[in-house]
Amino acid sequence: MRKAAGIILIVLGMIGLIGLVLALSDSGIDLSSLFIILWRIVSGALLVIGGVLCLKRRYWGACLASALLALFIGISSAIFSLQVPSPVGPLFMTWGTWIMVLGAVISTIFISLTKKEWQEIRGK
User: Is residue 100 within 8 Å of 43, Cβ to Cβ?
Assistant: First the structure.
């Protein structure tokens, strides 16, 4: 389960970075969106780092923090999509938001369940 959580976190980080590249190719860079660009780069990098730490069995707390960051990003994206009027309905979210929320929940559960496994490794 630890390996699955690590792979999920790496995939979530890469999806965020790919989404950033696609958004930049469509709209270009302006000064008002510089903060959003930097936030997406930093959060994507933190998710990838957390996934790599999960795969290497190091720093359980950092892996959990990375999974909780992914959960925060997914929930904040879902809340933002609820505030924007949509022709489909108020609960319409993009596929990226669904993937982020579901992947973050699954990886958080997997990391929480494997805490005992990580403690046994440190004891050796």
Answer: no
Within a 10 A sphere around the Cβ of 91, how many other Cβ atoms?
A: 9
Whole-angstrom distance, CA of residue 116 vs CA of residue 106: 17
Q: How many whole angstroms from its chain centre is CA 43?
A: 7
Distance between CA atoms of residues 38 and 43, nearest Å = 8
Angle at 119 between CA 115 and CA 64, to 5 degrees: 35
Q: Look up the pTM and report it.
A: 0.74
pLDDT digits (tens, 9 = 90+) for 70-116: 888 888 877 776 666 655 554 556 777 778 888 888 888 888 887 77
Has residue 52 got a pLDDT over 70?
A: yes
On whether the CB atoms of residues 9 and 54 are closer than 8 A, the answer is: yes
Helices and strands of the chain, counted as H and E runs? 5, 0
- CA count, 13 A, side-chain hemisphere, 118: 21
